């Protein structure tokens, strides 16, 4: 059995041998460690012998760089406190990406929430500079909170914009916690104004650093108001400064192939779900499955499990020619390329390749989420170990999506036939 996290041997009930170092682990952390071992993915075909995996690199091989970052993250964690913040983070990001901002502001907010905004305190922590004094006030250390919320100049801008003072009453150590607090306290319009404000403050800070000119709070506040007005007008009239992505629909496979779509997702806060569907050239459902399970795994792992499950279903049905499609690019790339078997998902990838070798012909392709909606809805349905060979048993929301896809296929077929008829008449 492959041990997770690069751990070696369990030493009694007191500690673990971690990469050659004995670490005393509290009981609560031991239970999490044992749970992680029990949830490690093992291949179903027994191709690999037992081996060590380092779960902090994609290749599964140990590196000094990954160990250094791991130790840095562990040193910043609160000792002996284990809190699962994944539901908290998911809720924040789910709401954050619903806001309509230009990409530069969304990217700024993403960097801030991830704690990778290059303020001086962060650069000093990475040993890239020794100067930590704020560029604007020249008095205190330039942390992310000081620059965007605590600096006197920033407070002047916030007062002019009439932002609630409760947002800046105490310092937060985690930027994503502060942003979530702001998201809870403010209305969507106020949060938009806040995000534009801190982005403009960051822009003024960079300008002051490059040009050497002291920033003007009144000018900055006026810029923020004008920017917000332009955003509101663009929303009102449906104007977008950036090109919107083109919607992509599901495309039926050519005869005699059958198309296998798969997807993985999260079901609530404690479970994962996988789903898959097999359809013919007319868009008709030949078979489908949905399975929700615990413990929860990350989204990429769920995608690989869904791909393996839909291939197992196709092998059970003795299909010969298949097209495998999913919206996870890393999964499709791993299937088409050679992957180090020591990687965290190496067992599952090898299972997938063994299953694919049993078909007469196959191909694997990546497509956008819009073209994979049926599999996505099945993965999110929350059904437990459900498999069917009839489309009438599909959940209601999934069945409606299936009807829409069939209508699109029929419409496209009719249009294609009409074009061929017109060309034939013209040739005659």
TrEMBL record:
InterPro entries xref list: RNase_H-like_dom_plant, RNase_H-like_EbsB-rel, RNaseH-like_sf, RNaseH_domain, RNaseH_sf, RVT-Znf
Domain Reverse transcriptase zinc-binding residue range list: 62-155
Source superkingdom: Eukaryota
UniProt keyword Flavoprotein present: no
One annotated GO molecular function: nucleic acid binding
Keyword terms: Membrane, Transmembrane, Transmembrane helix
Alphabetized Pfam families for the sequence: RVT_3, zf-RVT
Spans traversing the lipid bilayer: 6-25, 37-56
Name of the protein: RNase H type-1 domain-containing protein
Species the sequence originates in: Genlisea aurea
């Amino acid at each position: 059995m492959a041990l997770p996290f690069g751990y070696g041997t369990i030493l009694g009930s007191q500690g673990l041998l971690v990469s050659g170092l004995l670490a005393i682990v509290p009981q609560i952390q031991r239970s999490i460690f044992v749970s992680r071992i029990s949830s490690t993915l093992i291949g179903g075909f027994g191709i690999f012998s037992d081996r060590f995996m380092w779960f902090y690199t994609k290749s599964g091989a140990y590196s000094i760089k990954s160990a250094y970052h791991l130790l840095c993250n562990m040193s910043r964690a609160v000792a002996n406190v284990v809190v699962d913040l994944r539901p908290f983070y998911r809720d924040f990001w789910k709401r954050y990406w619903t806001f309509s901002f230009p990409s530069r502001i969304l990217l700024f907010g993403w960097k801030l929430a991830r704690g990778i905004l290059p303020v001086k305190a962060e650069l000093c922590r990475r040993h890239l500079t020794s100067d930590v004094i704020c560029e604007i006030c020249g008095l205190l250390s330039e942390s992310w909170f000081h620059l965007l919320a605590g600096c006197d100049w920033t407070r002047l801008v916030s007062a002019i914009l009439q932002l609630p003072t409760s947002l800046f009453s105490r310092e937060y150590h985690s930027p994503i916690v502060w942003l979530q607090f702001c998201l809870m306290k403010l209305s969507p319009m106020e949060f938009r104004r806040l995000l534009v404000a801190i982005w403009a403050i960051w822009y003024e800070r960079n300008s002051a650093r490059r040009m050497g000119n002291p920033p003007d709070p009144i000018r900055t506040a006026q810029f923020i108001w004008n920017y917000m007005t332009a955003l509101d007008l663009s929303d009102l009239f449906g104007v977008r400064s950036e090109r919107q992505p083109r919607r992509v629909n599901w495309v039926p496979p050519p005869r005699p192939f059958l198309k296998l779509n798969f997807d993985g997702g999260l079901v609530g806060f404690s479970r994962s779900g996988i789903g898959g569907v097999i359809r013919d050239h007319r868009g008709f459902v030949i078979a489908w499955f949905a399975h929700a399970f615990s413990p929860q795994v990350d989204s990429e792992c769920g995608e690989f499990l869904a791909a393996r499950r839909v291939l197992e279903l196709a092998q059970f049905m003795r299909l010969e020619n298949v097209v495998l499609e999913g919206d996870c690019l890393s999964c499709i790339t791993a299937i088409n390329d050679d992957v180090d078997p020591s990687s965290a998902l190496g067992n599952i990838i090898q299972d997938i390749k063994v299953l694919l070798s049993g078909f007469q012909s196959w191909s694997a392709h990546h497509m956008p989420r819009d073209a994979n909606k049926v599999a996505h809805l099945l993965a999110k349905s929350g059904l437990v170990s459900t498999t069917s060979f009839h489309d009438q048993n599909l959940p209601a929301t999934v069945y409606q999506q299936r009807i829409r896809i069939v209508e699109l296929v029929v419409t496209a077929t009719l249009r294609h036939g009409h074009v061929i008829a017109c060309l034939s008449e013209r040739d005659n």
